[in-house]
């Protein structure tokens, strides 16, 4: 049943977010997941990555696979899933040994502190999803689902301002460090899809954002992606656009590839479903296998 915005909603979101997602960075040093693909796995013959080496997956919950519902127990609060796009891509490209150090809740400082150590001269491919938590995706979601219009607008304004300024410089520095630590690797940066359809008439879940709040969600996602695009362009790094790939499959559509608002499963809401992660894998594969 859809519920009206209330203090109960705010409390539920805040508690579950802090307990299940916010704990990620504090435990981001959990051991990485190193995966060797089965010899029976179908291999893409057109892969640009023909030599042997390592594939290092970096980033936040969109990279670790939050939303796929199945997680490695050994990954703890990082919530790494065997259905994430790094794992799915790796199964089709077994010549590169995957080192998965992604972690739910990660921000740029946690990537630096707990993930970059996985890089080396043996690294041939690096993928990363990062920037959403730094810009305040979580704060915006909390404010726009459980707060007032003014709180939603304020959180959005802060996220947009950060994305247009600090995020760009932080990402440029991060990309430069990745290149230094993995000089033989191709770095690929993946973006974020729109969270909600501004005019969608499908179910949004337990809370249905009004048109104004949906528009603010969209502005926030656009700002974060544009900040990432600016940084990747200046760093001469490949960016993989995800907004068109999810077009028509956002929350509030009839066929969402993102988890709808679920107050009993806050950590997974607005994260890709299994189908959504397959879309991520397809977009990544288009980049790596077209050479």
Automatic annotation (TrEMBL):
InterPro entries hit by this protein: SEST-like, SGNH_hydro, SGNH_hydro_sf
Endoplasmic reticulum as UniProt keyword: no
Domain of life where this protein originates: Bacteria
Annotated Gene3D superfamilies: SGNH hydrolase
Keywords noted in UniProt: Disulfide bond, Hydrolase, Signal
Protein name: SGNH/GDSL hydrolase family protein
GO molecular function annotations of the record: triacylglycerol lipase activity
Organism annotation: Kineosporia babensis
Disulfide bonds listed in the record: 78-103, 144-152, 204-252
Span of the signal peptide: 1-28
GO-annotated biological processes: triglyceride catabolic process
């Amino acid at each position: 049943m859809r519920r009206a915005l209330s203090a109960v909603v705010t409390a539920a979101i805040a508690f579950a977010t802090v307990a299940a997602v916010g704990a990620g960075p504090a435990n981001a040093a959990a051991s990485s997941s190193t995966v060797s693909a089965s010899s029976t796995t179908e291999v893409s013959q057109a892969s640009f990555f023909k030599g042997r080496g390592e594939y290092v997956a970096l980033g936040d919950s969109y990279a670790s696979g939050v939303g796929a519902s199945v997680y490695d127990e050994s990954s703890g609060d990082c919530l790494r899933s065997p259905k994430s796009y790094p794992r799915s891509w790796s199964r089709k490209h077994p010549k590169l040994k995957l080192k998965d150090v992604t972690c739910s809740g990660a921000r740029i400082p946690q990537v630096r502190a707990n993930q970059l150590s996985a890089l080396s001269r043996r690294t041939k491919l690096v993928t990363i999803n990062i920037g959403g938590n730094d810009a305040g995706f979580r704060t915006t979601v909390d404010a726009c689902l459980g707060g007032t219009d003014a709180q939603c607008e304020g959180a959005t304004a802060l996220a947009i301002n950060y994305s247009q300024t600090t995020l760009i410089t932080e990402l440029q520095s991060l990309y430069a460090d990745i290149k230094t630590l993995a000089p033989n690797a191709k770095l690929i940066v993946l973006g974020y899809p729109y969270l909600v359809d501004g005019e969608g008439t499908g179910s949004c879940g337990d809370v249905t954002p009004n048109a104004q709040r949906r528009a603010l969600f969209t502005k926030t996602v656009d700002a974060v992606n544009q900040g990432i695009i600016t940084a990747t362009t200046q760093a001469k790094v490949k960016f993989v656009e995800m907004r068109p790939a999810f077009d028509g499959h956002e929350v509030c559509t009839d066929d969402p590839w993102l988890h709808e608002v679920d107050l009993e499963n806050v950590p997974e809401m607005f994260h890709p479903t299994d189908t959504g992660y397959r879309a991520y894998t397809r977009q990544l594969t288009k980049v790596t296998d077209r050479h």
